[in-house]
Automatic annotation (TrEMBL):
GO terms for biological process: methylation. It comes from Kistimonas scapharcae. This is Methyltransferase domain-containing protein. Residues 40-172 form the Methyltransferase domain. CDD domains: AdoMet_MTases (cd02440). The lineage of its organism: Bacteria, Pseudomonadati, Pseudomonadota, Gammaproteobacteria, Oceanospirillales. Gene3D superfamilies: Vaccinia Virus protein VP39. Keywords: Methyltransferase, Transferase. Pfam families: Methyltransf_31 (PF13847). The keyword Methyltransferase applies.
Length: 271
């Protein structure tokens, strides 16, 4: 069950390169979210679906030497990169390990559980939240960030972007995921017994720079899945990628990431 066959976007080195590009573009919004929730020194944290560990390291800095962060992921290549980055930054209060939220057998409970862009790829997000609830200490907080692909926009309208969006959403749904899960996060948290639920919405768009390249790079990273699932031909994929890069390089266009929904809540303290 801990394979990557459900995952639409390339894993391994290529997937890590994409996440390394995205991480600084959304770091400000993620840090603002962590500020709103509040993290104290000494907390025990889990970053599930941690990828190459960008948020894990930020959590480790925030909880200080008396706290600890576990970064869990099913992609061993990304975990190796995360360990290397932690070593380079001299961050010692973090451990990266192979972990699948669909099959967790951890004995410990955490004060904070964080997940970004994880639930969108899972066929049973509610089941995953139930598992995370069981691994959260009473009074502990869960912090989620995930996409709502209905909030993917550009200026002016771009047919290649519209086709890319349609292909991405179809592929994710075909593999059991939900490309629109972001807007559902507050309801999912409530349905799984979390309380004091809050939310915010983030839309990252730009006129220049890396933010405009996200759609083209993501299209490159879902090409294998589109071909394997019979959703597009190589020639169509290449044409869409070329047009997306041309759109991004036009100084008169605006492009960016899909809307991201942030949601957080707590496990009741008296259970």
């Amino acid at each position: 069950m801990d394979n990557l066959s459900h995952y639409v976007i390339r894993s391994g080195t290529e997937g890590a390169k994409r996440m390394r590009l995205i991480a600084p573009l959304i770091a400000t919004d993620t840090n603002a979210l962590l500020d709103r929730v509040g993290l104290n020194n000494g907390l025990e944290c889990l970053d599930i679906g941690c990828g190459n560990g960008a948020v894990s390291l930020e959590l480790a800095r925030r909880v200080g030497p008396d706290g600890h962060v576990t970064g869990g992921d099913i992609d061993d290549i990304k975990l190796t990169m995360a360990r290397t980055e932690a070593h380079l930054q001299g961050i010692e209060n973090v451990t990266f390990k192979h972990m699948d939220v669909r099959n967790m057998h951890e004995n410990c409970c955490y004060d904070v559980i964080y997940a970004r862009f994880l639930l969108t790829h899972l066929p049973s997000p509610s089941q995953a939240l139930n598992v995370l609830y069981q691994h959260l200490s009473p009074g502990g907080s869960i912090i989620l960030e995930d996409i709502d692909f209905k909030g993917n926009t550009s200026y002016p309208d771009c047919p290649a972007l519209e086709r890319y969006q349609a292909l991405y959403c179809t592929c994710v749904k075909q593999r059991g995921g939900d490309p629109f899960i972001g807007i559902k996060l507050p309801s999912l948290l409530r349905q799984n017994h979390f309380t004091n639920i809050r939310m915010a919405a983030v839309q990252n768009l730009g006129m220049e720079g890396d933010i405009k390249l996200i759609s083209a790079i993501t299209m490159e990273n879902i090409a294998d899945s589109l071909l394997n699932d019979g959703l597009a031909s190589t020639s169509e994929i290449d044409e869409i990628i070329t047009e997306l890069y041309a759109f991004a390089n036009n100084p008169d266009t605006i492009a960016g990431m899909p809307r991201v929904i942030q949601a957080w809540g707590y496990r009741p303290i008296n259970e």
